[in-house]
Amino acid sequence: MVRKLPPLNALKAFEAAARLLSFSRAATELNVTHAAISRHIRTLESQFRTPLFERTGRGVVLTESGQTLAQELTKGFDLIAAASSRFARPSRRRKRLVVTSDVSFAALWLVPRLGTFTALHPGIDIVLDPGHRLVDFAKEDVDLGIRFGGGEWSGIEARKLADAELMLVCSPKFQADNALTSPRDLDGSLLIQETAKECWDAWLAAAGISGRVVPSGPTLNGDLALAAAEAGQGFALADQIQAGDALLAKRLVRPFDVVASRQGYYLVSRAGAKTPEAAAVFETWLAAEVRTFAAKLAAHLAPAVFGTKRVRKPPIT
Fold it and tell me: pLDDT for 199-248, tens place per residue?
């Protein structure tokens, strides 16, 4: 049976534009012009007789039809890439990429997705080094870093990957067993503390209950607090990167739509240094993964329980 397929170049152009939400970035990735991407998109819209993008003053957004097509095409191209890599002759020289990362970002977000990157780019030998310190790019054999902070480090070029917004999380069963109608109903003994007291101070202020509720549960750090929350041991604080996958998998829930904006996650490198090819490939993949994740999480969390309260706080160090 002869398959009736749209032009493959048009499908590639659309998939890249949908994944990156940018015609310009798609053109750069595919090494074609912006006009070529636009022409391919128009071809598909004409063939499918439906718009795939909505053009806005701030860029482009996918229509409902575009979202459905993009999801299926990305899966298809991933399968083709994975199949091709199994039959391609291995390169004699693999490109080594060393990435240092914030521990929480690496453990809770990056590592579960790293297999996708290695399948798509078998010629890149990635080395992931999680840690809290800022490396010296001038002296150490490190290509890229992922760091949490304000984005201002001396001699460092920083590109924001994601904001960090503190939210209250717990297991679904714990929420059912401790039915609450307002943050004012919180029992301080059920709030899992962290060494960084500023985190709870920021969230309690955003919830309007500073001084009324005092966290007095066990003190656990970062990943351990989330593990305790998943195990039904109390309420914990986490940002969307730390808790996002558990929220999507419904291992955690957010009982209140109250967030406290903190700092953010940044991709960092040595200022003024030439970007190695492997690092550029990783950065493009990482940015696309973060955007896809953020869109899924936003859709999952809406509609929220209460109106969102956002309080901008000074940087937490």
Answer: 899 999 999 999 899 999 999 877 799 999 999 999 999 999 999 999 99
Per the CB < 8 A criterion, the answer to whether 50 and 63 are in contact is yes
Residues of 95-120 as b/e, b for ≥16 C-beta within 10 angstroms? Answer: bebbbbbbebbbebbbeeeeeebeee
CATH superfamily entry for domain 95-163+264-280: Periplasmic binding protein-like II (3.40.190.10)
- Crossing angle of helices 34-48/8-20, nearest 10°? 110
**Distance separating alpha carbons of residues 69 and 50, to the nearest angstrom:** 11
pTM of the model as a whole: 0.66
Whether 95-163+264-280 shares its CATH topology with 164-260+299-312 is answered: yes
The two structure tokens encoding residue 293 = 């994740």
Give the DSSP letter string of 140-186. SS-SEEEEEE-S--TTEEEEEEEEEEEEEEB-HHHHHHT--SSGGG-
Quote the distance between the C-alpha of residue 148 and its chain's center. 13
The pLDDT tens digits of the residues spanning 274-291 come to: 888 999 999 999 999 999
The residues, ordered by sequence, that sit 6+ positions from 5 with a Cβ below 8 Å of its Cβ are 11
